[in-house]
């Protein structure tokens, strides 16, 4: 079955059923737009959309904080959607009794100012000022929730971390907890393509470059003109002046290159490290009574599911929830090879509506009777529920052998398997990394059977019975390299009985970051953690075996009886990541057996 929620027993009241019980009761009011001045004088463009346009009533507020243009001016005669980044929130919440407030972040859209960072601390300060402004409005009942996908989702964390008492609930969707490791430097490896395409997207939007905007499907319609001026800016002079200020915005490839290690700081501001734009850094400033519902998917970029789980594990908040589906970034696509259709069927925003109804509107929703974690098991094509993460406590161990097999028992004799890293190897253009760059993808890893043949692979015997995993597979890789660094890309796949290989998940680690550490209290994990700090980086001693123990990205997957489990190793992903080490493809030697036995641990129920 597809990702329907009305089959099985994961929910007492499935999201689709709850949404069906909450039909639209209001019309979407016409947006009113104005500038709101920040304490430093910078003016932010704000749209206010009220149910029925009714300013005489007081409404709970859903706040959307976006750098992707709150609303566009539209060519005369066109019926194109003017708010491609936010219309789904408008159409879900305003008809059901919520005021929607959408803000162009500082340095974006029709707002003035410049962006000095990715998720700047200056933006975070703006969010509190916006919350102050909202509660002072006659149409606000004094309760604020926030939601949004990706950048907008992390903005929810930043808003809550301001400690504003009106913020009662946040639903960060497909959002990082650690921008450095969850997004740009997974495993300490820079995703080069992401930095470049994000920069091009922001040039298109911030500079009103319509020639560039045409490359991004969400914003490509030529009927979308520049950022919509606020109501009092009749001739658009202020909006154009704001866009001119945006010409000084930071450039992502230059900016993110300042942080080659997680603890690197800006040379002109020693207090500013990557933590400054990571939500985890502000844990202690988030009130414990804020309700949090985080959503992600098994194909959600480089590490967004890690962020969703770490947020759940770290926050002390009593009311916190997780939803993990078979989705890519933003749940644009159901990525399961066994899907019934490309478009996801579970109404993610319907579940967010239930959450806000519970914590903002004071409705009796039954949400508190549900388990705090719901996740989808691919290939089983079923939803599961859990009270804690990981939801299983046992593990299945598999050991690599010299004949490139995976064995249930540790080989007694020490063995070696050489692999020459190939810098032309890549994962293609239909992967987990495209959508986070604003690039369309739908046939996820459909060509994996062919691509896998260029890798160093180890394959198990056919399974006698189905094997279901849920959590982070962990690889203990004994490896020697003839170069002082290496980039390790490790893939888990199911090889079906007829020979088709299905990509399951992957892990990435730069060899100089192999040292493990204890996770700090503001960044809890149940998988191996490392600092990625400059002081902890260690070159590989040439041709001397080293232990690299690291987690693959989390998943929930059922391997079928008769299928085989395959572990594959590569020294590059040329389609997405930087080359490491430069111009020196290393000869890698994988060790197995004896005391240095490379081992894969799969999280299972038994």
Question: Describe it for me?
Answer:
With 606 residues, the protein is of the alpha+beta class. 17% of the residues lie in helices and 28% in strands. It is built from twelve helices and 27 strands. The strands form six sheets. A ten-stranded mixed beta sheet has the order 1-2-5-3-6-7-11-12-13-14, with helices on both faces. Strands 15, 16, 17, 20, 23, 26 and 27 form a seven-stranded antiparallel beta sheet that branches. Strand 6, helix 4 and strand 7 form a beta-alpha-beta unit. The mean pLDDT is 96.
For this entry, give a set of tags.
606 residues, alpha+beta, Rossmann fold, Jelly Rolls, 2 domains, ten-stranded mixed β-sheet, 17% helix, globular
SSE blueprint and pairings:
Blueprint: H1 15-20, E1 32-37, E2 43-49, E3 59-66, E4 72-74, H2 87-93, E5 99-104, H3 121-135, E6 140-149, H4 151-161, E7 167-173, H5 179-184, H6 192-206, H7 210-213, E8 224-227, H8 237-246, H9 252-256, E9 265-266, E10 269-273, E11 291-299, H10 304-314, E12 320-328, H11 348-359, E13 373-377, E14 382-386, E15 394-400, E16 406-407, E17 415-420, H12 448-451, E18 456-459, E19 467-471, E20 474-481, E21 487-495, E22 501-510, E23 546-551, E24 555-559, E25 564-570, E26 587-592, E27 599-604
Parallel strand pairs: 3-5, 3-6, 6-7, 7-11, 11-12, 12-13
Antiparallel strand pairs: 1-2, 2-5, 4-8, 9-10, 13-14, 15-16, 15-27, 17-26, 18-25, 19-24, 20-23, 20-26, 20-27, 21-22, 21-25
Helix pairs in contact: 3-4
């Amino acid at each position: 079955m597809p990702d329907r929620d009305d089959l099985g027993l994961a929910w007492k009241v499935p999201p689709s059923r709850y949404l069906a019980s909450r039909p639209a009761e209001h019309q979407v009011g016409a947006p009113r737009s104005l500038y709101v001045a920040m304490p430093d004088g910078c003016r932010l463009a704000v749209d206010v959309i009220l149910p029925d346009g009714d300013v005489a009533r007081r409404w709970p507020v859903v706040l959307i904080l976006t750098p992707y243009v709150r609303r566009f001016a539209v060519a005369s005669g066109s019926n194109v959607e003017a708010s491609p980044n936010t219309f789904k929130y408008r159409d879900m919440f305003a008809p059901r009794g919520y005021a929607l407030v959408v803000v162009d972040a500082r340095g974006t859209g029709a707002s003035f100012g410049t962006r000095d960072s990715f998720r700047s601390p200056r933006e975070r300060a703006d969010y509190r000022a916006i919350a102050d402004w909202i509660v002072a409005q006659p149409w606000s009942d004094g309760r604020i929730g926030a939601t949004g996908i990706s950048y907008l989702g992390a903005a929810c964390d930043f808003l809550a971390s301001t400690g504003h008492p009106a913020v009662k609930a946040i639903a960060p969707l497909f959002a990082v907890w650690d921008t450095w490791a969850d997004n740009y430097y997974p495993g300490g490896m820079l995703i080069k393509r992401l930095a470049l395409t994000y920069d091009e997207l922001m040039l298109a939007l911030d500079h009103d470059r319509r020639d560039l905007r045409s490359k991004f499907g969400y914003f490509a319609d030529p009927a979308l003109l520049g950022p919509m001026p606020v109501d009092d800016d009749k001739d658009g002079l202020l909006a154009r002046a704001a866009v001119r200020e945006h010409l000084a915005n930071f450039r992502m490839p230059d900016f993110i290159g300042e942080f080659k290690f997680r603890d690197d700081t800006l040379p002109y501001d020693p207090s500013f490290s990557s933590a400054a734009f990571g939500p985890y850094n502000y844990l202690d400033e988030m009130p414990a009574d804020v309700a949090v519902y985080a959503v992600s998917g098994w194909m959600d970029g480089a590490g967004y599911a890690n962020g969703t789980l770490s947020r759940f594990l770290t926050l002390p908040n009593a009311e916190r929830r997780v939803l993990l589906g078979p989705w890519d970034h933003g749940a644009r696509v159901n990525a399961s090879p066994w899907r019934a259709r490309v478009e996801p069927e579970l109404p993610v925003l319907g579940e967010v509506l239930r959450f806000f109804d519970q914590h903002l509107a004071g409705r009796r929703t039954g949400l508190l009777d549900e388990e705090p974690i719901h996740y989808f098991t691919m290939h089983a094509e079923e939803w599961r529920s859990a009270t804690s993460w990981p939801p299983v406590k046992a593990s299945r161990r598999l050991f690599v052998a010299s004949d490139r097999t995976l064995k249930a028992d540790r080989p007694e004799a020490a063995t070696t398997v050489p692999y020459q890293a190939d810098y032309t190897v890549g994962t293609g253009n239909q992967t987990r990394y495209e959508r986070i760059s604003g690039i369309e993808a739908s046939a996820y890893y459909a060509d994996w059977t062919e691509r896998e043949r260029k890798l160093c692979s180890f394959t198990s015997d056919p399974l006698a019975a189905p094997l279901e995993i849920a959590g982070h597979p962990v690889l203990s890789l004994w490896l020697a390299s003839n170069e002082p660094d290496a980039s390790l890309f490790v893939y888990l796949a199911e090889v079906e009985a007829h020979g088709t290989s299905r990509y399951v998940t992957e892990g990435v680690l730069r060899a100089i970051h192999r040292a493990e550490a204890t996770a700090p209290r503001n960044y809890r994990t149940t998988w191996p953690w490392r600092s990625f700090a400059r002081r902890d980086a260690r070159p590989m001693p040439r041709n001397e075996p080293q232990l690299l123990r690291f987690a693959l990205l989390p998943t929930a997957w059922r391997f079928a009886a008769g299928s085989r489990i395959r572990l594959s190793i590569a020294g590059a992903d040329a389609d997405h990541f930087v080359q490491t080490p430069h111009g020196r493809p290393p000869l890698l030697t994988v060790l197995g057996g004896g005391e240095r036995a490379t081992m894969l641990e799969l999280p299972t129920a038994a």
